[in-house]
Amino acid sequence: MALRAPCPMLLLPLVLLLACLALASGQPCFTQNRLFITHHVNNPRTLAPNPRAYCSIMMRRRRIYGKLINTFIHEINKVCTTDGVASGPYKFESKNPFNITICTFNPWSISYTGVSVSEKIVISCWNALPVFYVKNR
């Protein structure tokens, strides 16, 4: 009796099952957390002569293109655990203000302008990790 090649119709459910197990393992949470850190965390703050230069440097360095507004957080805190207050499903507001820089794209000059402020932030968390920047207050 000769061996037969695997049936493609049987392989599809197996591949889908493996994909579901990979998603359930928590890997996407860590991927989202890394993306959050890349797009929003700069601690310690990169030195620049002014907020406009800072935004130009950081947006280029982090390869964030075409985003109209991006906020960089210059401190690390445990907003998702002890230093935040739940403010909605998966959302936490910081108890204390953070030093942040808000970068806004100007389409006329094709550059970023920036403003540095100290405000509370709201972020989305999953498994006690920040995964999405919601807003500042």
TrEMBL record:
Domain spans labelled Ribonuclease A-domain: 29-137
Keywords: Disulfide bond, Secreted, Signal
Subcellular location: Secreted
InterPro entries reported in the protein's UniProt record: RNaseA, RNaseA-like_dom_sf, RNaseA_domain
Gene3D superfamilies referenced in this protein's UniProt entry, alphabetically: Ribonuclease A-like domain (3.10.130.10)
Gene Ontology CC entries for this record: extracellular region
Keyword Disulfide bond in annotation: yes
UniProt keyword Disulfide bond present: yes
Signal peptide: 1-26
Protein's GO biological process: defense response to Gram-positive bacterium
Protein family (similarity comment): Belongs to the pancreatic ribonuclease family.
PANTHER family to which the protein is assigned, alphabetical: ANGIOGENIN-RELATED, RIBONUCLEASE
Name of the protein in its database record: Ribonuclease A-domain domain-containing protein
Organism name: Chelydra serpentina (Snapping turtle)
Lineage of origin: Eukaryota, Metazoa, Chordata, Craniata, Vertebrata
